[in-house]
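Lab channel / #folding
Pinned by the channel admin:
"Please post every new chain as: sequence first, then the structure tokens as a reply. Keep commentary short and put observations after the output so the thread stays searchable."

First post following the new format, from NK:
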Amino acid sequence: MKKIAIASIMLVFVPLLSLANEYAVISNKNIKELSESEIKAIFLKKLTFIDNFAAVPVNLEAGDSLRVKFEEKLLDMSFERLKSYWTKEHYLGHRPPVNMKSEESVKAFVKKVDGAIGYINANSVDDSVKVLYKWSD
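Reply from TO:
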């Protein structure tokens, strides 16, 4: 009976594990491999060049669920903390990352602009972009 109960529980919960969403930080093929800390520095505009290219971080719009996940996971910052950070940076003459309306526009921009780096759902990745980092919920 105990084995049947364990098997039943596994049949319910194991498939749920495969439902975890996977996401990817992407760049075009000209960008070198980057560490998680370098990606964070690029999105906070503390690292402004990657090799010979100006770093161009690309965000989804504020409030987008993937953006929230990215900010919490890679930047380790809440929306309010980032808002405060960019308010201070504004007075130092620094602008926040470029915003795009969709993952498709992020991917298209990253493909065409050397130094651009963005994030999308991993299932949208193809050979036209390079995956720098992956994470899941």
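NK: The longest strand covers residues 130-136.
TO: also worth noting, The chain has one domain: 21-136.
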